[in-house]
Amino acid sequence: KIIKDHFMRGIILRPAQGVNLEEARQIAAQYGWNIELKEEKISDPIEALKEKFDELYKDESKLVQRPPVVTVMGHVDHGKTTLLDRIRKTTVAEKEVGGITQSIGAYQAEIDGKKITFIDTPGHEAFTEMRARGAQATDIVVLVVAADDGVMPQTIEAFNHAKTANVPIIVAINKIDKPNANIDLTKQQLASKLGLVPEDWGGDTIVVPISAKMGKGIDELLEMILLVAEMSEIKCIPQGNARGVIIESELDKGVGPLATAIIKDGIIKPGDYIVAGSTHGKVRALRDEKGRKVKNAGPSDPVQIIGFEEVPDMHEILYVVDSLDQAREISAFVKERQKKERMVKGKKHVRLEEFMRI
Ligand code: GDP
Ligand code: MG
Question: Locate the Tr-type G domain: which residues (predicted)?
Answer without folding.
Answer: 65-239
